[in-house]
Amino acid sequence: MSVIAEFTISAPDLVLTATLEAVPGMTVELEQQMASSSETALLIVWATGGDFDAFDDALHHDPTIESHSIVEELDVRKLYRLRMNRETLFPVYPAYQKLGAVPMAGHGANGTWTRRVRFPERTALVEFQQFCSRNDIAFSLERLYTPGDSESAFHLTEPQREALVSAYESGYFEVPRDATLSKLSSTLNISKQSVSERLRRAQSRLVENTVLEKRDQS
Description:
Helix content: 25-40%
Number of helices: 7
Strand order of the largest sheet: 4-5-3-2-6-7-1-8
């Protein structure tokens, strides 16, 4: 039976590590990833919450990025198309392919990636952990569940879940509110824009996977 693992990984040679460390206020959400031996190595990511001028400059000096372009530019975030440098590209994605794993979500900030990946079985996850150990990649498992678990039905990323829990516990959803975005920003150690973005996406997913799903089934 397949399992879904949510974990963090970090290492100096992982893609975008240098950029995310250079611009600690910036967070990126993975939109699409293509990186195998037979495909162009591309990342499509949303960037938000930091200094975009500093982010663009850091991309120019990031050894893992060959070139980059902006696909879409909104008020508080931008969609980037990143061509990865194959000569310096660390083979994490090929490792997923070899194990039959399917990346589902990715979030990067402060030099660390938080990933949600479906593995065909638990032994594949163990092999991936061993791969990380052999290649000096710091690996920390946050959650592990099967696709049928009710807890996974909402399809929230770990950062989204963390933001929702923090907002609820601090009284952000109370009327009147007992907490502000500034307080949540301090608690989560991210920018106010990033907090707002995570809460909006999390609430959108909750509506999609509860209210709308029930309506479609009725």
